[in-house]
Design goal:
8 helices; six-stranded antiparallel β-sheet; 28% helix
């Protein structure tokens, strides 16, 4: 089926699209720009840049330095993102469970959803004892090297997963980053079998990310949940053996069951589907960790992947 270019539609408002392009032109490399720089970044004339900058400033989206005359984004741009998070049907119900897992595991917990070829983080509870990297809400990580991305891909068909991987800009962010499509597909297949995906220092050095897919009640993967831990304190073992699921005093499970018909399932207002099952954690196999000073806890749902704490690090 041939995709239709939306710009060819009579419904497409080019001026609105250009205005959005002006806003998106500001980034970490271009935190502020003059009118000629805006024109060059967006590919418009200087007079057009002046009109768009004036309008966006009047709307509160841009602010202008009175001395340098350079423009930059204003905090007003956060409003749309804030409203998105506040009205998100899954995140609203997930947050209490994410916080519970964060407090029990003592590690960073993230919830991410697909956005093109990336996963964008919409929920995050950082570790209180260790912060491996700063990753604010809204951070995008390429799907191919994100544990949540591989967990998401594991819910797609082989052809769909390959299409996403092949069109991705597979940059080698660290020496451990895997970029070969066939190898990545093998990792996705392994995640399907295990119900669990991981990335070990593939986007950030020192980060071991462990993720499971979040599904709606139709079985479609809609997000990924991950636990981000230090690779200096944790190791991954592939042993094809189911670990004992000794969770102690009601410790949370990482694996998201997302079973249809659950009383905890949530309803998505736009389509009526029953969404993520309230982050009711799964009860299959497990990967476990031990702390030298605390009772053993298990984060279940992982078959064939064991995660052991190195007792010399905490």
């Amino acid at each position: 089926m041939t995709s239709v270019n939306p710009e060819s539609s009579t419904l497409y408002v080019q001026s609105l699209a250009t205005g959005v392009s002006v806003l998106k032109a500001f980034n970490t490399e271009r935190p502020s720009m003059s009118l000629p720089e805006i024109a060059a970044a967006v590919g418009i004339s200087k007079s057009a840049a002046q009109r768009f900058a004036f309008t966006l400033e009047a709307l509160g989206m841009l602010k202008k330095d009175p001395y340098s005359k350079r423009y930059s984004l204003s905090s007003y741009n956060l409003d749309a993102g804030y409203q998105y998070l506040q009205s998100h049907p899954v995140l609203e119900r997930a947050n209490p469970y994410l916080l519970d897992l964060n407090q029990r595991a003592g590690e960073t917990v993230n919830l991410a959803e697909p956005a093109g070829d990336s996963m964008v983080y919409i929920g995050r509870f950082p570790s209180l004892v260790r912060l491996i990297m700063h990753m604010p809400i809204g951070q995008r990580i390429p799907m191919f090297c994100a544990s949540t991305g591989r967990a998401y891909l594991s819910g797609l068909s082989d052809d769909a997963a390959r299409t996403i991987l092949e069109r991705s800009d597979r940059v080698r962010y660290t020496p451990q980053t895997e970029t070969d499509v066939d190898t990545l597909l093998a990792l996705v297949q392994q995640a399907r079998e295990d119900g669990f995906a991981y990335c070990n220092e593939e986007f950030y050095r020192g980060d071991l990310a462990l993720a499971v897919p979040v599904r709606d009640t139709a079985g479609n993967v809609i997000a990924g949940l991950n636990l981000s831990v230090s690779s200096t304190a944790w190791t991954v073992k592939r042993d094809r053996q189911v670990r004992a699921a000794d969770a102690g005093d009601g410790a949370p499970d990482l694996h998201h069951a997302a079973q249809p018909g659950s009383a905890a399932a949530v309803s998505h207002p736009s389509c009526g589907c029953r969404g993520a099952r309230g982050l009711m954690w799964g009860r299959s196999a497990s990967f476990a960790a031990e702390r030298p000073c605390e009772p053993r806890f298990a984060l279940r749902g992982v078959q064939a992947v064991g995660v052991d704490r190195k007792l010399t690090h905490f």
